[in-house]
Amino acid sequence: MELRRVNPQPPPADAESASVTPQGLREHYESGATVTELVAASGLSYGTVLNRLREADTVMRTSWQTRRMRDGQARRNLAAHLRRLYEQEGATLTELAAAGSVTRRAARRLLIEAGGTPRTTQQTLRIRSAANAARRKRLAASLRARYEADASVPELARECSYSVATVYRLLHQAGTPMRPQHNHGTARAPKKQS
């Protein structure tokens, strides 16, 4: 019976190859490569790469230091992307930091580098409020069109996951002429005359 390995290991890297010696790894690392990139290029394990870097007395960087020393174009691209998010979508500095995998302070610095101007909290709230109002207006117009095409308010509420009252409010905001309401409850007995 023949045994096959499900996940074969890559062939071991030549220990004498200049690129996998402690000094060779250090040179690549100091030129801007990350540990993960060295692992992929050398075929060595992550731990082995780290041990060889330590053996060569390599001063290790933080991820931010690595990004900073990388190509300036990548930094400019990130700064431009963060500025677009900030100015066109009303993102906050906290959201920029998350999008760029940087700190709030670094996101602010990148925004300024790209020519952006940081806003006050009030300015951000106004931008977001205006965006929400525009989105709500589009939703109201869409609901009006569907209502005028004979959809009922309860149907619209179910489809949009809104309450019936919210759908009525949106239809009213869109200036929708409402159909007469029907009594869907139990029939009432006629009043007896005395």
Explain the overall architecture.
There is one protein chain. The protein has 194 residues and is mainly alpha-helical. The chain is built from ten helices and no strands. Helix 5 packs antiparallel against helix 6. The protein is elongated and about 105 Å long. The model is unreliable at 4-16 and 183-187 (pLDDT under 50).
Q: What's the shape? A: elongated
The overall average pLDDT, rounded, is 80
Specify the structural class.
mainly alpha
Distance between the termini: 101 Å
Ranges where pLDDT stays below 50 over 5 or more residues in a row are 4-16, 183-187
SSE series: HHHHHHHHHH
> Quick one: biggest sheet?
none
The value of Rg in angstroms is 31 Å
Helicity range: 55-70%
What is the β-strand count? 0
Beta-strand content bin: under 5%
Number of helices: 10
Keywords:
194 residues; mainly alpha; 59% helix; 0% strand; elongated
Question: In short, what is this structure?
Answer:
59% of the residues lie in helices and 0% in strands. The protein has helices at 22-30, 35-42, 46-55, 63-69, 72-88, 93-100, 104-113, 121-148, 153-160, 164-173.
SSE layout:
Blueprint: H1 22-30, H2 35-42, H3 46-55, H4 63-69, H5 72-88, H6 93-100, H7 104-113, H8 121-148, H9 153-160, H10 164-173
